[in-house]
Structures are given as C-alpha cells and as structure tokens.
Amino acid sequence: MPTDTHADLLARQPVFDAHVDSLQRQLDLGHDLGRRTRGHLDLVRGKQGGLGSVVLVNWVDPKHIAAGPGGARRRTRALLAQFHELAAAHPDQIAWAGNGALLDAAHASGRIAGIPGIEGGHSIEGTLEDLDWYFEHGVRVLTLVWNNHLDWIRSCQPGAGPGIPEGLSEFGKSVVRRMNELGMVIDLSHSGEKSIADALATTTKPVIASHSGCKAIHGHQRNLTDDQLRAIAANGGVVGIVFCTAFLKDEAQKEDARLRESAEYKAIAGPNDTDVFLRQGEWLQEHATPLPMEVVVDHIVHAARVAGIDHVGLGSDFDGIGRTPEGLEDAGCYGRIAERLLERGFATADVVKVLGGNMERVFRAVTGPGTAAHRARLAPLARVGSA
Length: 387
What we know:
- The protein is an alpha/beta fold.
- It has one domain (about 15-385): TIM Barrel.
- It has helices at about 5-10, 25-30, 45-50, 65, 70-90, 100-110, 130-135, 170-180, 195-200, 225-235, 245-250, 250-260, 265, 275-285, 295-305, 335-345, 350-365, 370-375, 380-385, and strands at about 15-20, 50-60, 95, 110-120, 140-145, 185, 210, 240, 310-315.
- The longest helix has 20 residues, at about 350-365.
- The protein is globular, with a radius of gyration of 19 Å.
C-alpha cells in the first residue's frame, strides 16, 4: 500500500504554529511580511513550509511599562495594527481567523489563518476593560505572563519581589474567567508553577502552553514538568513544542550563553532593539555549534508519551528567539518535523494531530461561534477575513 509522505500530511493538515513574534519586524524595521524577508517567518516561506494557521503575537518589552501608564497599551495597539495592516495589504495570503469557522474559510481559500495574540499580561495594564478591547479588535490568545512578574501573576523566572502572588491573585483569576467568557485562548507558557496550577483550577475551557519544552529533557525554567504536562492534558489542552535552542538542550543553552559574552557579539549594533536582536540572532546562527533538529523531535516524543498524542503541537517562537536548530532555520522548514516523526514510527493520524490538529481543536473549543453581539461588533474584521 502507498504510504503518506510529509507533503501529503501537510496538504491534509496544514501546520498550526501557536507562537510567532514577527510583527515587531514589520513595525520597527518596515519588513513586509507578505513578501520574502530576513528573519524567521514571512507568509511566503510559511506557505512553502505548509503553514496554515499562525498566532502572531504582540510582545511588549517591559521598558514600555517604565514609560508610564499607557506605555504597554500603546505599544500593544501599534503591533496589533500591524497585524490588521498585513491582512488588508495581502488578502490573498492571510485572513483574520477569530474562530473555527473563519479558520476553515481561510484554509478553504488557500490562505493562512492569522490569529492575533498578546505575549504578557502587562499589556492589559491591570484592567479587564483593556482585555475586552483587545478581544473586540481581534486578539484571540493571551499569554498570561512573560518573564516579568506582575502584581496579579508570578512568572517562571526567579526574583519575584514583595507584592507578587505565589500564583494568581483574585484579579488574575478574574482575567482567566473573563477570557473564558469572551472566547480567548489562555496561554500558560512563561507562567510559574503555582500560576499554572491556579489557572487550570480556574478555567472552564482548555488551555495551551504555546511555546515550551519538556523539563525532563532539559531543566530550563521555561520548560514544563511531567506533572504539568499531565495536568494540561487532563484539562484537554495542548503544549506547543518550542524551537528555541536554549530551551531544548543544556549544551545549547551553555553555548548560547558563552557566545553572548564574546566581544564580537556585544559589539553588534543597530538603529533599534528589534534590528539589534535580528542581527544578534543571525550572528549566533552562523557561529554557534549547530543543534540538530532531532532534539525538537525528542521533546515532541516525550510530551506525547507523557501527556498523550492528543495534547502536543508546535509553537516555534520564530523571530522571538536568537537561533534555531539546524534544519528548522525558518518557516519553510515545518515539513521536516513531519518527515522525522514518520521516520520515528508515528502513525500518520498522529503526525496530523501534532502538525495542527490538536491546536485547531483547542482553538475551536475556546473561541466558539461567539454571541450575536460579538459577531456584529466583529463584522469589519470578518470582512477582512473573507476578502
């Protein structure tokens, strides 16, 4: 009998990448993501790599908080505007997907389903009103916290000072409940141990950890323990395996740290932080000892073994990481993961789940069709999605 190739699988189930940071390049560097660019991801390479759905996140450097009240909000809105400008400029390539029906419509028309996300609860500046505003303007995923602790949630990083809760405060729990009501996906990547437990105890809908690895393979603080993998599975959620070399293997983390201390690395300069970050990543990719992409597959295999095959997906963190494993240099390379999983003996139906089926399931379950009032308010966005 003929066997499926990775190309067959990508045609059947396009990739759902749950976490990509490319909007910063469009805002700060003028990159048109509808054309081939520098960096990890654009729509051209994504389409070539089998990308069908992508969460394009608005990540706000905490320095914008230091700018005073409204600083994080202004930066987030500027990045979100870039998403909608991208969809308006390239309606033949990408369509806003606010729920499963719009995701299906994008796929049926041969376009990538674009899903705006926010990485870090500091963007809501402590108000549910801001959360509502982001939802009404198309955001469908919120990573509750980034590496900076907030007064309503603790991150996975050390150094939380006084006033930081062990997990979620009462306001933090109200954020989770409001996201459930709105139909916004809760993302637990970057969250601290008790924050994850509190969110899982509060939510009535499945969650994701959009871009994380397995702590059993590499004990990085950003990775998840086996107990956390099981807890997310019990919730019906999905873990997106990240492509960040430092999260995947101890040796790679040490290699990155060593190179970042070099005089050549420290001398890299540019007109703004996004340009410097891009140049630094390109330099690391060129000078670091390559990390084989098999390590990404190892994390997928472990997560599938512990959490179950229905609870594993992909969250590259493209354009938010310094360097990537060898073979996964950019968005044109997703198919290599399918290829390796087939070589490891995964059934074709299970590879389909990892590529995107599992993330699609959670997205559909959480976003739903929306209320009549929501659908009316979102009509302008839906028109962009059906252009």
